[in-house]
Amino acid sequence: MMLKSLDHKLKQYLVVTGNYWAFTLTDGALRMLVVLYFHQLGYSSLSIALLFVFYEFFGVITNLVGGWLGARIGLNRTMQMGLGLQVIALLMLTVEPQALTIAWVMSAQALSGIAKDLNKMSAKSSVKHLLPEQAVDKLYRWIALLTGSKNTLKGVGFFLGAVLLSTFGFTLSMWIMACGLVIIALISLMYLKQDLGRSSFKPKFSDIFSKSRSINLLSLARLFLFAARDIWFVVALPVFLSEQLGWHSSTVGAFIAGWIILYGLVQSIAPKITTTTSTTSSGHINSAFQWGGRLTLVTLVLAVVMHQQAGNLLHSEIILVIGLMVFGFCFAINSSLHSFLIVSLAKSDGVSLDVGFYYMANAMGRLIGTLLSGYLYQQYGLVSCLWGSALMLFVATLTVKFIPNTSAKAIKS
Questions:
Q1: Any idea where the domains of the chain sit in the sequence?
Q2: Is the C or the N end of the chain the one with fewer CB within 10 Å?
Q3: Per CATH, is 7-193+209-401 categorized as 1.20.1250.20?
């Protein structure tokens, strides 16, 4: 009843956001459950990283095809498809423990990767249709809130995964999350507009590849930005905290969850931190370049200091925790700016095509980062992952510098 009394576009935004939130909780919980459970079973860091290869690989394909599909059949349908596939992925992991082979888990993760990127592409693209073309400031705020709240809840999901594992065990946790998503799918099916995001033309399959220089450069920067995060955060960090520093699995889950929650909160308030007098995307491009430089410097300093303190676990622990906080703050600002820029620069008609291409690059970055995280940590340790992260951030920041400034005027909302 409360939804019926709200403004139509605000109601649609709330439904999209609620759907995205629910999915994100299970996505974060599932990742932490898989990492911790299979680490307990004795899997190496590289083997755990391989479990997520299909998750990231199929995310690349999904964003390309999903953007095209969303433009043809509507974003509400692609969002529902994402929820359905996540339920199937969770149920696949309810088999007997001896049946949880690497191949089976990789297959379940493949479905989860498809589901996650269908859901994310649909949610981000939907916001473009709920605001006037000129409302640049409000678009930035809405995107920042959607992205930041999602990552905050992903952090809660990490914590939830650790709690579920210690309380209910792996199998029952899968059933609990699957049932929750079925309920959310039914609610969003009742309230979400049926033609949301459907383009006025029927895009060809070849349209999945962006022809815009701005979109291509921003996508390349996004690839390196997220590869730089995941090269040390996905596998290397939780395994280092557990193996080298002796943290309990629940402590690792709680710490990473707290980090992501704070990271999401910073993303949500990024528009207040990066206030610019520009009424076009050019001011935000300059902000993205400046914040990219700060993030690169922070990571470089962290790598140097961790290298110097390699033999002192107590100092390494303190430095790593402080460094993670500063890294998370700067990364959150960068991520929020990039997320706004893609929606701002994307074409209004068929927006999911540009957004899908962009998040394809995002998924490719995560895939590269995940693989390197497992390999570099196993071969050379955490510091090598940090050096790789600093190098990738330098490339991402430099790429942003070459994005053409837009000259179209926009009116502040």
A1: 7-193+209-401
A2: N
A3: yes
Decide: pTM greater than 0.70: yes
- Distance (Å, rounded) from C-alpha 74 to C-alpha 286? 33
d(CA 358, CA 219) in angstroms, rounded, equals 5
Rounded distance between C-alpha atoms, residue 312 and residue 314, angstroms: 6
Q: Name the maximum alpha-carbon separation found in the chain.
A: 62
Q: Is the dihedral of CA 129, 13, 405, 390 positive or negative?
A: negative
How far lies 264's CA from each of 110, 152, 331, in Å?
25, 4, 10
For residues 208-217, b (16+ Cβ closer than 10 Å) or e, as one string? Answer: bebeeebbbb
The whole-angstrom separation of Cα 248 and Cα 19 is 32
The residue type found at 291 is: W
The b-or-e profile of 377-406 (16+ CB within 10 A means b, else e) is bbeebbbbbbbbbbbbbbbbbebbeebeeb
Q: Where are the alpha helices (DSSP H) in 93-212?
A: 102-129, 136-167, 170-191
**Predicted confidence (pLDDT) per residue in 146-173, tens digit:** 777 777 888 788 888 888 888 898 899 9
Tokens of 135: 């409302």
Q: Per residue in 244-291, pLDDT tens?
A: 888 887 788 778 878 888 888 898 888 888 865 454 566 788 899 999
Rounded CA separation 37/51 (Å): 12
